[in-house]
Amino acid sequence: MNKDQKQDIKKRILEELKKTEEAILDYKESTKPISPENAIGRVSRMDAINNKSVVEAALRKAEEKLNKLKLVLNKVDDADFGICIRCGEPIPIGRVLLMPQSRNCVRCAQ
After folding, report:
1. Residue 37: its pLDDT value, please?
2. Is residue 1 predicted with pLDDT exceeding 90?
3. Mutual angle of helices 42-75 and 3-30, in 10-degree steps
4. DSSP alpha helices (H): ranges in the chain?
5. Nearest to residue 25, comparing CAs of 64, 59, 2?
6. For the chain, N or C: smaller number of CB within 10 Å?
């Protein structure tokens, strides 16, 4: 992987970091406690509580992704970055962004 490709990857990782941070802010806003004095029915309250738990799971996943993206951003300049540890072939950028912790290409990960 040449220097230009690594710079492009850094740029895309930074963009993904920004999107993930924005998603985390949205999720945090959506997971605020549901006030009992709100005049909503019992079924609506149960639905809101259920939705809150789904959003909390998405928040945890986004925070995990953010941490992994930060980690991979620090490793972009490593000599073996983006190279599959099993076959030695380059790992596609899409995979690096979706699964930054992955050190294998799709074929070798199966």
Report:
1. 62
2. no
3. 160
4. 3-30, 42-75, 93-98, 106-109
5. 59
6. C
The answer to whether 17 and 73 have CB atoms below 8 angstroms apart is yes
Q: What are the residues facing 76 on neighbouring strands?
A: none
pLDDT digits (tens, 9 = 90+) for 66-100: 998 898 889 888 888 889 999 999 999 888 878 88
Distance CA 17, CA 44 (A): 34
How far apart are the C-alpha atoms of 97 and 68, rounded to whole Å? 10
18 to 12, 57, 62, 74, 87: CA distances (angstroms): 10, 20, 12, 16, 32
- For residue 99, the SS3 value is coil
